[in-house]
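Troubleshooting log. The previous structure file for this entry was overwritten by mistake, so regenerating from the original sequence record. Sequence copied from the archived sheet and checked twice against the printout by T.R.
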Amino acid sequence: MEFLESFVDWVRNKNHPEVAPQTDAAEIHLKHIGLMVLSTSVRKRYWLGYAGGALYPNLWTVLIGRSTFFHKSTGIKLGLEVLEKVDSGTNFKFPNEFSLEELVATLSRQPEGIFVPDEFSTFYTLFARNYMQGGISFLTEMYDRYTSYTRRLRSGEEFFIVNPFINILSSTTIEGLEQDLNPRDLRNGFLARFNFVTAREKERLVELPGEGNFEEQLRLVEFLRDVNSRKGKLKFSTNAITCYKDYYNKVIKTYKLEMDQGASPFISRLLVNTLKFSILFHLNDSQVNSIDIIRDWAVEKAIGLTDVLIVNAINLIDSMAMTPYEEKRRKVLRTIEAYQQKTPEKDFVGITRSALLRKVKMHKREFDLIVDTLLEEKTIIKDKFITQGATKPTEFFYINKNIETADPGKEV
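Regenerated output below.
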């Protein structure tokens, strides 16, 4: 049994085609949710020797979609449902609202667990509040810490955090990131520890979600319990070491320019995350997870994941460094596209010029300049037709799907 594939099949009701999927969340999001479920379940039971210490498979992940229509939170809820049944007596979730003192106190009592904030932008801006000063640097320090930590608060109270293991799984829209982050945030080291998982399209539309199969969910739970019945240090096979080293050097060579331009913290962290993914892909397979040797095939699967995440990180950095004109152009494009996604059952969906102008809230002169440029490039198309009850044709805009959209931030 492979846990990730079985988790996605359970969510999709793949083995029960007569029942609708539990959600139509994008498959790439479901796979990363499955990885997070596996990571949170095993916690510190498995590790690699790394840099004189231990590397555990904890992950910080943000799922990004064009809109709430991607049902990211529904997918996360289903993952948590499985986790809750693995050990019903264990509190594995951290609170999403806290002061710095409350956070330190919580981790001293419960050093292992997961934050699952509904909206990542809200979670991130929490650290800008006065009572959370120092919160980002503290949580960053906890990210890969494999030794105990002592902190004395201003009140004089002293807390001990023993071997923390902290996961974060959240979601947001592209617009949410753009509104609440600014370029200097990319240099603080905190965001570089996140895997930004972007889904631009969904594989299907589910109008009325179905229920999950109880027996299949139970098999997922039993799989995790079996993995958790063991623990120990893992190590790479000779071929796995060669595979990772070759990939490491390839990435450094391929992305030298991007690393020089600010992507270095993200790429270096993702290279380390490749090792964490390798642990999880090894544990994912019931045929080999009782062995302490990670083979090259697990590393290759991890590399496939990292390749996509590197591109996402670079595009996120690029999108945060836009000129005001580029930002407004992107806003127009995404407003048109978001409007189309709200009614995907229709073959032809557009937005009127007046409605578009109201939504983007720009001065008419700059709005007209952007729209005219997009039309000239054929990035968007306009058409006129008479709507029901009207006597004159109305002009509609929609994205031209036949060419590559010239949106600088399209992949984030």
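The chain is about 50% helix and 15% strand. Archived copy saved in two places this time.
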